[in-house]
Amino acid sequence: MRPRKLFSTGLIRAAVVLVGLTAAAGGASAQSQRGLPRARFGVADLTKLRWLEGRWVGSADGGPAIYEGYHFANDSTVEITYFADSTFARSTGGGRIYLSVGRVFQSVGPGLWGAAHVDNDGAYFVPERNASNTFSWTLDGPGMWTVTMRSSATGRERVTTYRMRRVR
Questions:
Q1: CA–CA distance, 57 with 105 (Å, rounded to integer)
Q2: Around Cβ 17, how many Cβ atoms within 10 Å?
Q3: Which of 3, 87, 98, 114 is the most exposed place for a label (fewest CB within 10 A)?
Q4: Dihedral sign computed on CA atoms, order 161, 157, 151, 154
Q5: pLDDT tens for residues 92-129?
Q6: What is the pLDDT of residues 28-63, one digit of tens each?
Q7: Bridge partners, 90 (sequence order)
Q8: Are 141 and 130 spatial neighbours (Cβ–Cβ below 8 Å)?
Q9: Residues carrying CATH 2.40.128.20, the chain
Q10: Cα separation, 69 vs 101, whole angstroms
Q11: Yes or no: domain 43-166 corresponds to CATH 3.10.20.90
């Protein structure tokens, strides 16, 4: 006696396609819920951040000062250098902001953030890889801007704000 076929090949294919579409839709909604950037950027958008060029000292309530330098290497890359102190003599690391395939990214070590928003007054970045915090830059006036970092890696949101002042 031959065993009965419980499902037809067509029914199995349809079920596999349905499961695949459901997973893809779930992945897309999960991606949009995480706030991954969908904006497309060009060279003109990165140029809007020209006010970053220079050396900066940042201060946060209750924290040590930070020292950073930003240099536009070309129309699609900004080199960032972090310094040990106000002499800007010893680098402690670096990163970059760059335009790639219509997206603006910032990288520091293994961390990568993607810009969700860039305009003449600032930018907003969300984590892409090896990062868990968001951050925004807001131009406050000539020679002044604010960095706001938000992290909930510990289960409780932590907000750190640095007021940046141009020194050179």
A1: 23
A2: 10
A3: 3
A4: positive
A5: 999 999 999 999 999 999 999 999 999 999 999 999 99
A6: 333 334 455 567 999 999 999 999 999 999 999 888
A7: none
A8: no
A9: 43-166
A10: 25
A11: no
